[in-house]
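Lab notebook, bench 4. We co-purified these components, and the gel suggests they stay together. Before we commit to crystallization screens, I want a quick structural picture of the whole thing.
Request: model the full complex, all chains together.
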Amino acid sequence: MAHLHLDPKKISHCRELANKISSPVEGLINTHTTVAIERASLRLIGVEGAVQQEKQVVPEVNIIIQDLLHEGVLGRGALKWFVNGMIRTKMTPSELSSQVARRKIKLSALSQAPASEIAQKAHELCKGAVERLIQSREKRDAYRADLKDPFDPTGRNGPLLYVIVATGNIFEDVIQAKAAAQAGADAIAVIRSTAQSLLDYVPHGATTEGFGGTYATQENFRIMRKALDEEGQRLGRYIRLTNYCSGLCMPEIAALGAMERLDFLLNDAMYGILFRDINMKRTLIDQHFSRRIIALSRIVIHTGEDNYLTTADAIENGHQVLASQFINERFALNARMTEDLMGLGHAQEMDPAHPNVFLLEIARAQMTRDIFPSSPIKFMPPTRHKCGDIFYSHLMDAMFNFVGVLTGQTIQLLGMPTEAMHTPLLQDRWMSIKNAKYIFNGARDLGKEITYQPNGVIEKWAEKVLDDTVAHLEMINKKGLFRAIEERAFAEVSRREEGGKGHDGVIRRDQQYLNPFFDLL
Amino acid sequence: MTQKTAQVDLKKLKPYGDIMGDGTLQVCFTIPVEPSPEAREAAIQFCEKMGLDHIKVATMEKAADGFSLFVIYGNLKHTVDFTKIHVVKVDAEKRSREEIDELIKTKIGRKLVVIGACTGYDAHTVGIDAIMNMKGFAGDYGLERYQWIDARNLGAQVLNDELLKRALAEQADAVLVSKVVTQHNIHMRDMKDLMNRARQMGLLEKMVFVAGGPRVTHPLALECGFDAGFGVGTKPSDVASYIVEEFLRRQSQGVSKEQREEAPQRAKSKVRPTRTKSRIAKSGKRQAKSKR
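Here is the predicted assembly.
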């Protein structure tokens, strides 16, 4: 494989800076919890039900956590109250949650069992939950082994073909996903309904209506997982399932994704802050717990740096992407994830009219590959400069596929000719997959045959981006992450430390805080 | 040798392939049955019903189990009278940033306040950013760059009510709304809702309402109650040109309205601005429907 000659000292300096930038945040993470972490903890031990309230179906975990928050006792941890309730009522988690959510039992009003008894019982329950996650993981390993899944995080086996479905109806999604798998797709993402990330609850049950996508629910996860397992068996290939672990329910989606055996989750340490205006503290605390679950379940995350390039100019802002990748890598390591699980994201979004644009795109793609050699790099297609000319768009996707295979990207989200028009039709996906298969096959070993000209345009561009990244990370380190974000360090977006959605769901941990998942995950 | 190619017949316009009047059309679609001679015949019959002659099936592909995809060529039988076509368009002279700044400076004498957002649950800011952010789009600087425009981009997922309250509080002269997600026509529902609220708050006369997005057209925006709509490929200076011109138009009408109040007998002969607008809105609606 051709490689760039980048200065390893500069790269390790970037990693040191990322470590310094993340360390003040670790203090925050260790002293706080959020409503979403507490809800995820209850979900992991088996609270799954929902209650009809007027026209809305409200998950039991939301009612339970909201009540504890209003009573001002959530700082001790939901498990403390819930497990005490189980001891006192001798009920199973689902029996008790059903009673509490219907306000027939008030957890904080029950007499307290001895702390050691609660701690021991909580530990047992959480251990059981972790064992279920491990079983789920082992089931995936068995499927993969059985089907001789060729996935290799380093990209050695060529880019994986990744497409999205987004009909709004999970049953229609199944038809589209199976069709995509038959055409050659290796991974399917079910795009979420627009703005689900801003809901402070996970919708319940199978859903047939959504806007720009389909709601992420536990039942929808199950339906699609089963469909892809069946299709994979039939086709003799392991088909991966992706969903979106971002927004106000990041830890809960991680829990549900882990339980329902998803393979990929979109999960970024800063995406929610920048692009969804979710409070900084909430996002950073939530991302940590979600990644602890992800680490144990060995799910591959996809980070969201590609979004920086749709908002800000792709030629000018390569360093922001790289700086963010280093920070995402550090936060993932802090959550006990290994490099082979970090699908660091970037995109081919430069202006197609720019002279020698492919040289710059190759430089960016190759340097991402070379700087994170063990990570499954996620490469996102052109969107920003696409319009309704589907023929030109198809050509842009072809060049994107060419850059992807040449530079050894791992997970290639295939572009759609009808980008900027509608969520993909069956035929759009078919065309797109045919395009990728042709190019990935035809240029499979091209990267092994070439070398980059020392001091050529490609090498120089990569060096410039790396230099800019060092400077950018030094600036962030000097200001601190929060202030740097306020001063538009990423994607030209400014966010304040106390601003954004979900800030009221951040709670300081009490000295008696109980959550054995932090030891077990 | 005399040159013998037919001239275009605008009264009987047809699509063009390589011979004037050939009516060549390419179509691509998927039908939910397996590829088979019967599927091919079904595809041909669809094309016949669309008004195609000399139908050639270029390819029939298996797109998935139970789905066949077709690429088909044919010659369209229908014609269109191009001379009778009437399209409702945004009425504004295209000006450069410098010209627009100069116009505001000399004719208005204060900065125009423009508030923009991607409304409802729509999270796609690419459109509003292209129009408003400093950088702009395709070499055309965004509204933030204009010296005489005070541009405030509120970003994504701003609720209609919130946007209007901000617009009122900040005494906006124009409100820009970007809509990208169109599934189940949610963009139209959101746009109509915004304009209903604006009407109730009495903002229609005070502000210029502009909608934009890849699937937004001027007639569609009018149908939803906006003053103008801009679609794919719109540049910031297109929007700014319109806002300034519309502002000046209203300003001059405002003057004539005051004059009317002084001399009501003369006012009768004048077309009232609100009526003009509702007439355009109606014809816009027809246009939008016939396009679908």
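Chain B has two domains: 10-82, 97-257+271-291. Worth comparing against the SEC data before the next meeting. Residues 257-292 of chain B have pLDDT under 50 and may be disordered.
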